[in-house]
Amino acid sequence: AHDYTKYNNWATINDWVISISSANADLISRQVIGNTYEGRPMHLLQIGKKTSSAKPAIFMDCGFHAREWITHAFCQWFIKEAVSTYGSDPEMTNLLDRMDFFVLPVFNIDGYEYTWTKDRMWRKTRSRNSGSSCIGTDPNRNFDAGWCTTGASSNPCSETYCGSSIESEIESKNLANFIRSNKSIIKSYLTIHSYSQMLLFPYSYKYDLAAHHSELVLFAVAYAIAALRSLYGTRYTSGPGAVTIYPSAGGSDDWAYDLGVKYSYTFELRDEGRYGFLLPESQIKPTCEETMLSVKYIANHVLNNP
Ligand SMILES: Nc1ncc(C[C@H](C[SeH])C(=O)O)cc1Cl
Ligand SMILES: [Zn+2]
Ligand SMILES: [Zn+2]
Ligand SMILES: [Zn+2]
Ligand SMILES: [Zn+2]
Ligand SMILES: [Zn+2]
């Protein structure tokens, strides 16, 4: 059965997505933004008080990379916290009254399933590459942001294969279409990865500083990660992706930023390498609780700085 403090397989997550949205119809509406390569429905949850007029929104996805299991756990945790603290936690109540969160609990469903059944360390999608026996594209190299110019490979056998074209992956296309169609209300894009304990922002595909760099730096460094550290002392670094982790092109955060989503961030959750992608289930709760603080901080900042 579904358990927030354990890693749940996709069938369990999918059943839970359907049941929690049905059970909280006042706060959650569910839609399918498309199917994956292998035909699994990509369920998107819209969380927030129902209002007649459109509210500003934050889009958050988890599970871009299949092996980064703590991220799937975080999106589930976020949804649970939202519905269970609405009405009792003033901060969450204010956020859900005035904003909507679009949460995509699992982006790369086919890959996630593969990590449960065949290869725990799988990263990419599971699409076939014509002319190669190697499977999959790195979805975080597949977006229209300096596509395949740096930190990505045009070899289908590479872990950072950029794909045969921009948005070659149906999963990328589904996500990009949704954000393009809703870019007038989407004020922030959060994409959750692991591991390294970093809060990254544009750009990764070039060394130029993002136009909003000063605010992103000030607020990202000084507040969001400080909020995170306040709970268990977990230390994050932050900065533009190119200089903080590595230069790499085709990322969804850079693409969203260039589309006009000013507050665009990549989280790299715990840990720093001791367990890496195999983070023990005992760390799910603390990781999720500390990350909640930084996501709520960002949401408040976005709300107060449209
Ligand atoms: N724009 C980006 N933002 C963050 C990253 C780091 C993640 C870390 Se798993 C990746 O390698 O896909 C990579 C890119 Cl291309
Ligand atoms: Zn459905
Ligand atoms: Zn990742
Ligand atoms: Zn990572
Ligand atoms: Zn600010
Ligand atoms: Zn909590």
Commentary on this structure:
With 306 residues, the chain is α/β, with parallel strands linked by helices. It has one domain: Zn peptidases (Aminopeptidase), CATH 3.40.630.10. It is 37% helix and 16% strand. The protein has helices at 10-23, 69-85, 90-98, 109-117, 170-181, 213-232, 241-244, 252-259, 284-304; strands at 28-35, 41-47, 57-62, 100-104, 186-194, 198-201, 237-240, 263-269. Helix 6 runs antiparallel to helix 9. The longest helix has 21 residues, at 284-304. It starts with 9 loop residues before the first helix and ends with a helix. Bound molecules: ligand 9B3 and zinc ion (ZN) (5 copies). The site of one zinc ion has 2 residues, from loops.
Which ligands accompany this protein? the ligand Nc1ncc(C[C@H](C[SeH])C(=O)O)cc1Cl, zinc ion
Number of DSSP-assigned strands: 8
Q: Any idea what the CATH architecture is?
A: 3-Layer(aba) Sandwich
**Structural class of the secondary elements?**
alpha/beta
Amino- and carboxy-terminal Cα gap: 40 Å
At the fold tier of CATH, the topology name is: Aminopeptidase
- Following the backbone from N to C, one meets helices and strands in this order, namely HEEEHHEHHEEHEHHEH
CATH superfamily: Zn peptidases
Say what oligomer this is: single chain
Provide a count of the helices: 9
Share of residues in helices: 25-40%
So what's the CATH class? Alpha Beta
